[in-house]
Specification:
Distance between the termini: 60 Å
Radius of gyration: 22 Å
CATH class of one domain: Alpha Beta
Number of strands: 15
Largest sheet: 9 strands, mixed
CATH architecture of one domain: 3-Layer(aba) Sandwich
Strand content: 15-25%
Helix content: 25-40%
CATH superfamily of one domain: NAD(P)-binding Rossmann-like Domain
Strand order of the largest sheet: 14-13-12-11-7-10-9-8-15
Number of helices: 16
Structural class: alpha/beta
CATH topology of one domain: Rossmann fold
Length: 439
């Protein structure tokens, strides 16, 4: 099935559901009806979000499961037993294959949790919203600029339909961060001049390879290590920090320049992603953010944190300010990965659905432009990457068999779009260099 065919099917599914009168029912102007959730993507993040959504609010039950692979669903169901009847999904509501999202939508759900590999999220978000369903979508929401623009359009459609879109960036629902950002925006640390953010952590899982798997199946089962599926770890993980940077500066960056590479994960089993990135983002007004992320094993140190620098103080947005107006958050709080789901469900029931779609699309693109700069060695501007970049990584045809080649990017050689030079500002020869050449 091609992506174009996939989206045509999604539109037809949405029309059919609307005709059946289901779209109006899920809008939930108010009331105590049970909200039925469908999960797409039966992995670790899917388990956490499914349980989080069911446990965060009363009157919520898991209704349907979808995944590309049936064995993943079978294993997943064993982990739901502690939910009791709220997690007892029937065999008839378990769907595998490339059309699993469509089938989850058609099963009678009200809210869809999208926890599949990020490369599939733009098309699935479009499908869910066109069908009149509310969305919880894990971060990031796309792996390339084309996907980001699709998500922004879907978010606008959701607003028209009064449908919720909440993203898995839990800091936005956590009181320490909410209060810290309020104080930053209120001037408690003065004018913002710089920031640093870190997601320096360890290695992750790998599911190996079986001889009966096609290359496409192998890549989808080990999706983290292929840029078209995960976006690379700067996009899949570090987006949390970059979302907080955009939040603090109340804007996406104006431009960035980056470095990165593969020092520890160099074998073919690690696909084509890097294991470290360093990015300098420049925000409107000139403030610069130093962004670092890595995934190294062994005895490598870890650091996951943010630091916002102002003219009158500094802020760790997890709950402290030092400077002229010192502050520390000390109240007890709820697990933010539960609170984000509670806020989502409350917004649906109130008839005032949250819509975080454009914001998480911009944060995803902030990470994507950093990756693009590191992969190519080029400085990237926000205006160009948002409006003009034609980079689209997800294959047109989605089926088992061959898969995209896992070529590792080489800065200075890898183009911004394969086969097409689209750099908005190619490097210029320096004057000194020209004079030296004449000599």
């Amino acid at each position: 099935m091609s992506r174009r065919q996939f989206l045509k099917v999604s539109a037809a599914a949405g029309a059919g559901l609307a005709a059946a009168g289901l779209v109006g029912r899920v809008a939930y102007a108010a009331g105590s009806d049970t909200i039925k959730i469908g999960l797409v993507g039966c992995g670790g993040r899917g388990m956490a979000d499914a349980k989080g959504c069911v446990n965060a609010s009363p009157g919520v039950m898991l209704w349907a499961l979808g995944d590309l692979f049936k064995d993943r669903i079978d294993t997943f169901r064993q982990g739901l037993k502690d939910l009791g009847e709220k997690g007892a999904v029937s065999d008839e509501h378990c769907f595998s294959g490339w059309d699993n999202c469509k089938k989850v939508i058609e099963s009678g759900v009200d809210l869809v949790l999208l926890c599949e590999p990020p490369g599939f999220r733009p098309m699935h978000m479009k499908m869910v919203v066109e069908a009149g369903k509310h969305v919880f979508v894990e971060k990031p929401v796309a792996v390339d600029p084309v996907g980001v623009r699709s998500v922004i359009a879907t978010s606008e459609l959701a607003a028209q339909k009064k449908l919720a879109i909440v993203a898995g960036t839990q800091s936005r629902h956590h009181p320490p961060y909410l209060e810290a950002m309020k104080r930053i925006h209120g001037g408690d640390i003065g004018k913002l001049v710089a920031a640093q953010c870190y997601f320096i952590t360890g290695t992750l899982w790998h599911r190996g390879r079986k001889p009966e798997w096609s290359e496409m199946e192998y890549q989808c089962r080990n999706w983290y290590y292929f840029t078209w599926l995960s976006g690379d770890h700067i996009v899949e993980q570090h987006v949390h920090n970059l979302d907080r940077m955009n939040w603090a500066f109340q804007s996406p960056p104006a431009k960035c320049i980056a470095v990165g590479g593969r020092q520890a994960r160099t074998g073919p089993e690690w696909g084509n992603i890097y294991d470290h990135f360093g990015v300098e983002y420049e925000y409107p007004g000139g403030a610069r953010v130093a962004s670092y992320c890595s995934q190294f094993g062994g005895n490598a140190s870890h650091r996951v944190s943010d630091n916002i620098v102002g003219t009158e103080g500094t802020c760790d947005p997890s709950g402290t300010i030092t400077g002229k107006k010192p502050w520390k958050f000390e109240a007890e709080t709820r697990d933010p990965t539960l609170q984000e789901h509670a806020d989502l469900v409350a917004s649906i029931r109130s008839g005032n659905p949250l819509n975080e779609g454009k914001r998480i699309a911009e944060s995803s693109l902030t990470a994507i432009m950093g990756r693009m700069s590191a992969y190519t060695g080029r400085e990237i501007s926000w205006n160009w990457v948002l409006a003009s970049s034609k980079l689209s990584l997800v294959p047109e045809k989605l089926e088992f068999g061959p898969a995209p080649p896992a070529e590792v990017a080489i800065p200075g050689k890898t183009p911004l779009v394969a086969g097409e030079e689209t750099d908005p500002s190619p490097p210029k020869a320096k004057t000194a260099g020209k004079k030296a050449a004449k000599k």
